[in-house]
Amino acid sequence: MAPAGIASDALDRPHFIGIGGAGMSGVAKVLAMRGARVSGSDSKDSPIVGALRELGATVHLGHAADHLAPDTTSVVVSSAIRADNLELVTARERGIPVVHRSDALAALMDGSRPIAVAGTHGKTTTTSMLAVSLRTLGLDPSYVIGGDLDAPGSSARHGDGEIFVAEADESDRSFHKYAPEVAIVLNVELDHHANYASMDEIYESFQTFVGRIRPGGALVISADHPGARELTARVTGGEGPRVLTYGEDAGADVRVLAIEPHGLTSEVTVRLAESLGGAEITFTVSVPGRHYALNAVAALTAGAALGVPARDLAPALASYTGVKRRLQLKGTAAGVQVIDSYAHHPTEIAADLEAIRGGAGEGRVLVVFQPHLFSRTQELGTEMGQALALADASVVLDIYPAREDPVPGVTSALVIDAAARHGADVTAEHDRSAVPELIAGMAKPGDLVLTMGAGDVTDLGPEILARLQSPES
Question: What are 389-442's pLDDT values in tens digits?
């Protein structure tokens, strides 16, 4: 049964505008796996577009009115699609239903036992940990993730099991469309400044999300994060969902007793509340950093809330080896490791730098950072710069605009000046093509280089490796 507002056959022949995007492609993949005749368009070719074609989707490059087949039953869009997009305008002219990505995802989750993962940071990692570990246990979940897993190598999958794991995106309030059996809230911070003017608006939005949890369901939420604790206070009591907390706080239902780093892995020990069996469990997290260890504990708690035995799920979590762009090793050349990080919010930047610092040994940590969005840089540029001071040296690129138009006076200088004020060794570089040569001149054997940001800075990793490997380096 389709959610209210979507005809039952609307997703039989859907056309996705911007089908190659991380969020859009996941929904398209699952629909294709379920037998829908999927088509779409994107501005450029990519491995994601190739994967969709292998699933039988028709993908056009560029946007044109004739990309919409005569029998198109709906046009699926995200909030990033502008109102004047030619295909969107054509759909409205022809009376083709326009469906938001979140409504399509809600329709996919209907009839399953959904786990929706929300929070300002860590959604992709936690969703991925659940997807991989539940598959390892043979539960064959469906999932839609905002990134590609290292294994099994896809951002989405249609499984035969009853569990459906999905990221729940707060950026445009689209997570209000979901009705999960278990909701995870990892943290609550002010972000997405184009859509939220204050923390109160953020809390209200998360309260609406929590209010969508199905009767008898559970909210899994951090006991440590200040914003999460405030949200817990706002939703506790009355006829709300069962609340299960996790973290290092002494009162947490799943209490973290120890996180012991071992190179680029961690060993985590937790104690479950009596209501969850009261066991003490130690397990391995195969990615570095305390924040990833805590994401794994959130996944463990959510699984327990859904009835998956924690003693089974804990060792299965070790089978998660990472997500593309989440501290992903791109390669090593001339003794220098090049790692890619999606971090773009100050909290994420600091967490990833602290995690990498733990695995760097005597080497230095060098960062190529690309601020993402004018609105975010305007609000958080100072904090971004402060976080970059954790690196030994940083190169800062111009702002990646994504969907935004420039804002007068808002440039990467906001980040650079703040980093310098906090004692950072920071260099401005306006020419992306100059970065590989610049890094090759800075890096020494044993150093770690991070390409960091949510934009196209990720493309520089292979170029830096190639330059490091070249004879003149």
Answer: 999 999 999 999 987 899 999 999 999 999 999 999 999 999 999 999 999 999
Structure tokens given for 440: 């090759």
Cβ contacts of residue 200 below 8 Å, gap of 6+?
none
* 113 contacts 181 by C-beta, under 8 angstroms: yes
Q: How far is CA 387 from CA 83, 345, 360, in A?
A: 36, 9, 17
Q: Break the chain down into helix, strand, coil percent, rounded to 5.
A: 35, 25, 40
Residue-wise burial string across 54-81, b where 16 or more C-beta atoms lie within 10 A, e elsewhere: eeebebbeebeeebbeeebbbbbbbbbb
Respond yes or no: is residue 444 known to be catalytic.
no
The question of whether 248 is a catalytic residue gets the answer no
Report yes or no: 288 and 256 within 8 Å, Cβ to Cβ.
Answer: no
How far is Cα 257 from Cα 440, in angstroms, rounded to an integer? 42
Distance of CA 109 to the CA centre of its chain: 19
Say whether 162 is catalytic. Answer: no
Place of tokens 């990720």: 458
220 and 227 Cβ atoms separated by less than 8 Å: no
Flag whether 159 is marked binding: no
Residue 292 dihedral angles phi and psi, to the nearest 5°: -70, -35
Q: Which residue(s) pair with 59 in the sheet?
A: 40
DSSP state of 172: T
Q: Is 382 annotated as a binding residue?
A: no
Q: Is 123 annotated as a binding residue?
A: yes
Residue 125 annotated as binding? yes
Given 123, 177, 324, 330, the catalytic residue: 123
Residue 451 among known ligand-binding residues: no
- Read off the tokens for 21: 């995007």
CB 327 within 8 A of CB 355: yes
State how far the Cα of 442 lies from the Cα of 384, in Å rounded to an integer: 22
CA dist., res. 157 & res. 135, Å (int): 11
Q: Which of 90, 124, 127, 245 is catalytic?
A: 124
CA distance 222 to 205: 17
Confidence tier at 292 by pLDDT (50, 70, 90) = confident
Q: Average pLDDT in the 431-457 region? A: 93
Nearest to 292 by CA among 127, 413, 469, 464: 127
What Å distances lie between residue 273 and 111, 246, 301, CA to CA?
30, 10, 11
Q: Is 100 annotated as a binding residue?
A: no
CA separation for the pair 123, 161 (Å, rounded): 22
pLDDT of residue 423: 92
Q: Which two tokens stand for residue 290?
A: 């305390």
Could you list the beta-strand ranges (E) of 312-376. Answer: 326-333, 336-341, 365-369
Catalytic one of 87, 167, 170, 181: 167
Is 265 marked as binding a ligand? no
